[in-house]
Amino acid sequence: MTRLRIILITFLSLLAFAANSLITRFALEKTTIDEASFIMLRVVSGALFLWLFLALKKDKKILQGGTWFAAFALFIYAVSFTYGYGLIAAGTGALLLFGSVQITMTIAGYREGERLNVIQLVGFVLALAGLVILMLPGISAPSFMGAFLMCISGVAWSIYTLQGRGASSPAATTAGNFIKAAPMATLLWLIVYLSTNNTIDLANIGVIYALLSGIVTSGIGYIIWYSVLPELKATQAAIVQLSVPLLVTLAGALLLNETITLRIIIASIAILFGTILVLTFKHKH
Q: What is the dihedral of CA 48, 180, 111, 79, to 10 degrees?
């Protein structure tokens, strides 16, 4: 794969991630759809779309792709991501999510033999400090539970990403993971339905957003992401995703009228500058 193609595919993946954050936040804030229904529709619609996509291609690996471990990580990511965004602004949530991704995947890269030099280590600590700044107590500090859920979401997404680096068929692997995660999402919805007597209102515009998230920004977006992962190291895969919070923060301010506070600006600068240090100053063996 050429360098230009890697950059293009990576950029498309990041756009899908940013769109997922905005769609989820918008649906939960502007429509009446509940979190469990959004999760179920997102995962199940993604699974059905990917199954149909492979069936039309006559791919015999429809039910063989993916693993239960990756599917469970995808489920945990979807649950914590959605419930987290019910409590936190889009830009702040994305910052916490992908900051956690960087920390988790950098640690994973270290365990796999990837080493950071002194300057890269400073960058890593700086990015971590950005998350701490964001979470310091204060008037503009985000909801603790929302922030906690977004961090859990980041760890789960890191595991899902690491599981996909060796995928021989990105489409089959993504489809298999979604198909395996669909019963989990459905079970969660049934539990919530039985405990709250809640139903899905098909006339609710939130259903459209859930389907858009499941089919386009998740189903197609994750295929694109898995296709470029073999070209990226764990550390690189973590760091390139840190551009997503900026996209989400700016779009959130424009589309959702969310406030860009000084705290978010300082945290973003710390995380992005730390990212630049890690990417620019490569370790020499």
A: 80
From 55, 150, 48, select the one nearest 103 (Cα to Cα): 150
Separation of alpha carbons 261 and 172, rounded Å: 42
Residues ≥6 apart with Cβ < 8 Å to 276: 123
Contact (Cβ atoms closer than 8 angstroms) between residue 103 and residue 270: no
- 264 in Cβ contact with 92 (< 8 Å): yes
Distance of CA 11 to the CA centre of its chain: 14
Q: What is the pTM of this model?
A: 0.80
- What does the pLDDT look like over 9-64, one tens digit per residue? 888 888 888 888 889 988 988 898 989 999 999 999 999 999 988 888 777 666 67
**Closest by Cα among 277, 281, 283, 280 to 130:** 277
| Residue ranges covered by each domain of the chain | 3-280
Determine the Cα–Cα distance for residues 280 and 285; give it in Å rounded to an integer.
Answer: 15
Secondary-structure breakdown of the chain: helix, strand, coil percentages, each rounded to the nearest 5: 80, 0, 20
